Amino acid sequence: MSLLKWLNGIFSGGPYYVKIARDCLSVENSSTQSKFSDKPLVSISNSPKKEILGIGVNAPRQNATLINPFDHPRLLVHDFQVTEKLLQYAFRQVAKHHFFSPSPIAVVHVTEKLEGGLTTIEERVLREAAYGAGAREVHLWNGPELTKRQLQDGSYKPKAI
Question: CB within 8 A of 135, min separation 6: which ones?
């Protein structure tokens, strides 16, 4: 880990609690209560350059393709690059008050009822997308919604055997 990323992590506050569902993406800094919550929609221009025009319910729809990377009948994530950009945007919104973008610890919680749980492929996709979005550490949480206290005391971390 680079020195800059380590220093950056010191100033990021508590872990970012990332809740993912087909109809909502929510990211909250557990120590500052700064929060981003919106529909996971990304508007991408139809031009050859494929620029992101907007994110969320207010994303432009004219001359654009609207993508929800979490809305697929067979998989949780069907577009990795869009998922990564969406998480990156959400992390920046939560860290708006920071002088520079922090490298947070991300606790990713899929809130949909997934039969049989996440596959190892979906787990890897979620981890890689969170790392690509700027997280310095990623934990996947499977269970009931975490409380602020559990986030602060690290209850989301796997127990040592």
Answer: 16, 91, 103, 104, 105, 106
What does the chain come to in residues?
161
For the chain, 161 residues long, give each residue's pLDDT as a single digit of tens.
Answer: 555 544 544 555 679 999 999 999 999 998 888 999 999 999 999 988 889 999 999 999 898 999 999 998 888 899 999 999 999 999 999 987 666 667 899 999 999 877 888 889 999 999 999 999 999 999 999 889 998 889 888 888 876 55
Question: Model pTM?
Answer: 0.86
Find the distance separating the first CA and the last CA of the chain, reported in whole Å.
26
Query: Which domains are delineated in the chain?
Result: 3-153 (3.30.420.40)
For β-strands 105-110 and 52-55, DSSP reports them as unpaired
